[in-house]
Design goal:
By secondary structure, the protein is an alpha/beta fold. It has helices at about 45-65, 70-85, 85-100, 100-120, 120-125, 155-170, 185-195, 210-215, 230-245, 265-280, 300-310, 330-345, 380-385, 400-405, 420-430, 465-470; strands at about 15, 20, 25-30, 40-45, 130-135, 135-140, 145-150, 170-175, 200-205, 225-230, 250, 255-260, 290-295, 350, 370-375, 390-395, 415-420, 440, 455-460, 470-475. Helix 2 packs antiparallel against helix 4. It binds nicotinamide-adenine-dinucleotide (NAD).
Length: about 475
């Protein structure tokens, strides 16, 4: 079985429609988290590279903004088609750099971004680009040069959720993927080149956040920043963008709650919650990591959660039978293990899993699916984003208490409510302060607005609402 695939040499940046030599010669290694081997290296770009990329994007903006909706949609359709053709290869690339099990990579890591590009034509049709308001003609104008900065956990999806609508709107883009999982971004740039996107409309600069990211967010010629990543970096980007009076869309972390009401099917609810908690080894911003159950049913919840967690098969992410791959890096694994130790020290009870290397796995940055019970809402493990396969069970006394606990978080990204009656679940869902909430296992909708409130950030991605972020409104009176 394959445990890795050959990765082409990536020693250039894509700027102004050409693969050009970076100005510096520093590189960054990309590590396969299952084999723990270096599989590729990428340029560590510099502020001077960002200057070149922003200049190219600025130069390309007037003519790209002047293209017709039809022209832009046709190019984005062509990108979707090529992504689809290269789907198996891209899934293998992402599995190699991130450790997502191969089936999930194909379905989510590649399937979702392909859809993001493919749906742009329809979304442009749905969006009102011009409307009459009294004696005004109100028109949507593309914002300009967009700095797009992505995280490592859904590398291609996060890029597509920014780049597809930005380009559809008529903006030009400087893209920085995560330095941890940058490889699919190179394939995407190749695809843009093949389909004939005009030079400078999309530019790729790889490198560290502190260098390339900083140069992008503070650049005087950038008109908008769109960022997905951690709360701390998000706050910093918000400050810099605020100083420059540039809009910033910030998609940050979460600590999402799953409330199981007393009339719910407990087994169904817990299986669904744990599945969402463990997806991508828990490295999912909308992971449901707080399971809120009636106090008297905690033992039952623990038993179901333990059975589900222990049934998960860990191993080689290229093995189709594997359900849980490694975490992305040794650093991330160590961070998550430290949280598990801390949970026990704080007085939470470890029900299954733990901080040790799971049995039978001699290599790979694995963490066993871990469940804590006797968790109080004020414990740090119930408040901080762990970003690993760790679930906290929290007991509630009455529905008001359940809602209070769900809202006892500085984050507000996702959530879930389970009940035997949809109306009951809906009434509770309305009272959770969060950007999205699923009732009784409602499926992820890639056309619904996606984003958070409070420390989960602001701005929306996906669907028409995500597209709207890349325009400003101009009123022309007559
Ligand atoms: P991160 O904040 O460390 O890095 C994200 C990106 O920002 C990377 O490309 C990084 O290089 C760059 N960066 C770092 N410092 C920067 C700086 N000073 N200026 C500009 N750019 C900088 O996050 P991560 O570890 O890559 O991703 C995990 C985090 O992302 C988690 O907190 C997760 O919840 C969050 N996330 C949120 C969503 C969402 O949609 N809300 C989706 C996925 C991930």
């Amino acid at each position: 079985m394959t445990t890795t695939i050959p990765i082409p040499v990536h020693d250039r940046l894509y700027i102004g429609g050409q693969w050009i030599q970076p100005i510096g010669d520093e590189t960054i290694d990309v590590v396969n988290p299952y084999t723990e081997e270096v599989i590729a290296s990428i340029p560590a770009g510099t502020a001077a590279d960002v200057d070149r990329a922003v200049a190219a994007a600025r130069a390309a903006f007037p003519s790209w903004a002047a293209t017709s909706v039809e022209q832009r949609a046709a190019l984005l359709d062509a990108v979707a088609e090529r992504l689809s053709e290269r789907g198996d290869e891209l899934a293998a690339v992402i599995t190699s750099e991130l450790g997502t099990p191969i089936g999930l990579s194909r379905l989510i890591q590649v399937g979702l971004p392909t859809m993001s590009f493919a749906t742009m034509r329809g979304l442009l049709d749905e969006l009102t680009l011009e409307e009459e308001v009294g004696n005004s003609l109100v028109v949507r104008e593309p914002l300009g040069v967009v700095a797009a900065i992505a995280p490592w956990n859904y590398p291609l999806h996060q890029i597509a959720a920014k780049v597809a609508p930005a380009l559809a709107a008529g903006c030009t883009v400087v893209l920085k993927p995560s330095e941890v999982t940058p490889l699919s971004a190179f394939a995407l740039a190749e695809i843009f080149d093949e389909v004939g996107i005009p030079p400078g409309v999309i530019n790729l600069v790889t490198g560290y956040g502190q260098v390339v990211g900083e140069a992008m967010i503070g650049h005087a010629d950038v008109d908008m920043v769109t960022f997905t990543g951690s709360e701390g970096v998000g706050r910093h980007i918000g400050e810099v963008a605020g100083r420059n009076l540039v809009p910033a869309a910030l998609e940050l972390g979460g600590k999402s709650a799953c409330i199981v009401l007393d009339d719910a099917d407990m087994e169904l609810a817990i299986i669904a919650c744990l599945t969402r908690c463990l997806l991508n080894s828990g490295q999912t911003c909308i992971a449901l990591t707080r399971l809120i159950v009636p106090r008297e049913r905690v033992p039952e919840a623990e038993a179901i959660a333990t059975a589900v967690a222990e049934a998960h098969k860990l191993g080689d992410p290229f093995d189709p039978a594997t359900q849980l791959g490694p975490l992305v890096s040794a650093q991330q694994r160590d961070r998550v293990r430290e949280w598990i130790r801390r949970g026990t020290q704080e007085g939470a009870r470890l029900v299954t899993g733990g901080a040790e290397q799971p049995a039978g796995l001699s290599h790979g940055y694995f963490v066993a699916p871990t469940v804590f019970s006797d968790v109080r809402s004020d414990m740090p493990i119930a408040q901080e984003e762990i970003f690993g396969p760790v679930l906290s069970i929290i007991a509630y006394d009455g529905e008001e208490d359940a809602i209070r606990i769900a809202n006892d978080s500085r984050f507000g990204l996702s959530g879930a409510v389970w009940s035997g009656h949809e109306g009951h679940a809906l009434s509770v869902a309305r009272r959770i302060r969060t950007g999205q909430v699923d009732i009784n296992g409602g499926a992820f909708n890639p056309c619904a607005p996606f984003g958070g409130v409070d420390c989960s950030g602001h701005g929306r991605e996906l669907g028409t609402h995500g597209l709207e972020e890349f325009f400003y409104l101009k009123s022309i009176q007559r």
